């Protein structure tokens, strides 16, 4: 069995990741000089025609071309706020023009690293910063939930992901389709990730987040530098995988994978244990006998991942980082009761640092996140108490099917709290707060200079 896998994954000598490609300094420099040049010109024009120091009114006039109110919006239409040129796609041939290119799992692309690199060269505005670009993918089934509360919760869980992405300037894709008709449930993500890699050559990392996982620290960013020698990062524990051979050694519901040839091949091999293959039943038997604690005879994606870590250490395992330094997939039962005390803790810290109580535009949230990180290190006003968990994962709650793995009340209360806890971090920039994490309808406006987490009005 190991041999079959090794064959599929044989051609991966060139682990050269696109992170390591030349940084296209020439072209990004040209763009920078271009922008700076325009700014200088505007400035010169301004000072040659105006006699007074610029005030807000004059500044706003400067950005609109004379006589045309829509003058400034023309630039907005072609260049996004991240400096990406959304209308530039030269006629030069790329992998997209190859009729043999397939987006489907089962038809791996070859030489993907080269193809991606070529595309980036032709799209210099995307090449700048490509090595840190994260693209979030999540999704749910195409049909309505059996339990209608599931659809309501799916919406709110998705809203949370959209909020997180907007704050950090990430793009997000929600898939509500089975891109392979036989790959439903756990296996649904492989075909989606495979297609996303091709649809987004500008992204270095594709971040899969299950529909029932939510960002509960809106400030936290993936420490990407740490993973420069890895292509897949999954939450879990080394000893649970390598010593206990437990199928719970990792959580396959939240992970990020590098957009490179290695991943192209890895996804094929991983998906090769799925329900679309004639060997599905056999894989179920192999996984059940390999894992020390797997009782369900069906092959599942998570056991399959642990299997690959164990059996294909050279080919795949060494490129997979098992992360346990922060909650990439925090277990909700351990977390939900601490939200109130964590809220108090952050309020205490904010009380000690004036800058943290300053109102600001949502767009510059990362600045305040950095101040908060520093305050934590300094322990300003810190009297012990917890940090927000990055992601809270409602494993086994299954609100869509209504097959609650815990009591419905436990799951619903936990989710309500987590959603409002996360949303409070967003709402503060809109001037409001929810003082009661169990009541989404109860809000009040934040007074000036008051910690957003204060409970008293
Ligand atoms: C964006 O691309 C278009 C089409 O190639 C080009 O005409 C335009 O000048 C570019 N914009 C910038 C700001 O480079
Ligand atoms: C952290 O401590 C340093 C050194 O005392 C200080 O300069 C800085 O302002 C502090 N930052 C915060 C956010 O508390
Ligand atoms: C939630 O807050 C709203 C608005 O303050 C209030 O009318 C409602 O009774 C509260 N619901 C519960 C369950 O406390």
UniProtKB/TrEMBL annotation:
GO cellular component: endosome; Golgi membrane; trans-Golgi network
Pfam families documented for this protein: Glyco_transf_34
Membrane topology: Single-pass type II membrane protein
Keyword Oxidoreductase in annotation: no
Entries under InterPro entries matching the protein: Glyco_trans_34, Nucleotide-diphossugar_trans
Taxonomic source organism: Rhododendron simsii
Keyword Glycoprotein: yes
Superkingdom to which the source organism belongs: Eukaryota
Transmembrane segments: 30-47
Main subcellular location of this protein, as a coarse class: Golgi
Recorded family membership: Belongs to the glycosyltransferase 34 family.
Protein's cellular compartments: Golgi apparatus membrane
Protein name: Uncharacterized protein
Keywords per UniProt: Glycoprotein, Glycosyltransferase, Golgi apparatus, Membrane, Signal-anchor, Transferase, Transmembrane, Transmembrane helix
GO molecular function, one term: galactosyltransferase activity
